[in-house]
Backbone:
């Protein structure tokens, strides 16, 4: 049964479950499957050239009549072209991340687009609110991919951000189950955004080798690294060992940038090079052990959330 709160009303969705827009993973197949299941699917534009983004938006519009959005990581190239395409194609929801919310929020809102910004601290949550964002995603230390410098865990970040802002807070980082979703909502979130759980989905466009690495990974297999450049959580592999050894030798940002090179994330997540590629994923991969259809993930999480609501605390 549908659920009503500020987030479901904002996006006109049934369940407060959002699929993160992730590079090399969140194309139109995944986004439309999540939206068709009553959650909110997001296309991850960071790994898409402008024409590719347009194609994904068009395919998503044909695959679902329900709301979906686009995630725009502001550090990537061609952002102005991406924004133009989003406006031209009539996308109604945009999640911005990794940048200043002041830059694009007003432009998007002038076109009637709902804007959400991803933050890793209360300070940035307040900035997003001041910039006119409709909601914030508060993403904790456990999350995969690019992450905040302060390393605040989801457990601490959610109540802090919920206390700091009046706009709705969407919790992210370390959430893959309905019980975790309930915990986040008890702490003040009004929805959850899940990335890792949806990487292990049939519709994710990432390489099957990467998906298998995700479901096989255990506690301690991911780490937040490259803190001198931009912190990123990934699976420890040969590429990571190279980074670690360089960092232990006191490598400069220039040397680390050279080691990172170009298109590492594509190599790992899309081409399936598990040794030399960058495998961005969250800590919660430790408890994700099956590749499932995205619709089943939404259903399972929602059912578990409701069961947990009836019986939230274990009693012995
Ligand atoms: P890179 O900058 O290494 O490479 C760009 C990748 O994005 C390529 O795989 C390219 O695809 C694809 N791409 C999609 N759209 C475009 C476009 N419009 N122009 C150029 N390339 C495009 O990508 P990363 O994701 O690794 O890093 C993104 C940014 O974040 C960079 O500025 C990087 O320096 C920075 N950064 C990344 C870190 C990381 O761990 N990823 C860590 C620290 C900083 P194709 O190969 O098909 O051309």
Residues:
């Amino acid at each position: 049964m549908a659920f009503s709160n500020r987030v479901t009303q904002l996006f006109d969705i049934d369940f407060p479950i959002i699929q993160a827009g992730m590079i090399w993973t969140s194309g139109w197949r995944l986004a439309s499957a999540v939206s068709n299941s009553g959650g909110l699917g997001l296309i991850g534009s960071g790994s898409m050239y402008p024409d590719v983004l347009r194609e994904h938006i068009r395919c998503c519009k044909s695959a679902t009549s329900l709301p979906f959005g686009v995630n725009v990581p502001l550090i990537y190239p061609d952002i102005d072209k991406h924004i133009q395409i989003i406006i031209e194609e009539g996308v109604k929801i945009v999640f911005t991340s990794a940048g200043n919310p002041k830059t694009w929020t007003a432009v998007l809102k002038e076109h009637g687009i709902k804007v959400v910004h991803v933050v890793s601290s209360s300070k940035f949550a307040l900035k997003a609110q001041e910039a006119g964002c409709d909601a914030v995603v508060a993403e904790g230390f456990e999350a995969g991919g690019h992450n905040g410098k302060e390393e605040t865990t989801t457990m601490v970040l959610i109540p802090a951000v919920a206390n700091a802002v009046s706009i709705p807070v969407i919790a992210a980082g370390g959430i893959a189950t309905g019980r975790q979703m309930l915990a986040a909502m008890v702490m003040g979130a009004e929805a959850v955004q899940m990335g890792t759980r949806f990487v292990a989905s049939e519709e994710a466009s990432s390489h099957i080798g990467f998906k298998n690495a995700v479901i096989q990974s255990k506690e301690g297999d991911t780490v937040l690294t490259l803190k001198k450049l931009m912190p990123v959580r990934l699976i420890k592999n040969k590429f990571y060992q190279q980074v670690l050894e360089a960092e232990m030798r006191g490598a400069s940002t220039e040397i680390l940038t050279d080691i990172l090179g170009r298109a590492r994330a594509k190599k790992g997540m899309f081409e399936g090079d598990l040794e030399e590629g960058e495998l961005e994923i969250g800590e919660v991969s430790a408890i994700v052990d099956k590749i499932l259809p995205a619709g089943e993930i939404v259903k399972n999480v929602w059912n578990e959330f409701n069961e947990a609501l009836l019986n939230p605390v274990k009693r012995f």
Residues 53 and 189 are 30 Å apart (CA to CA).
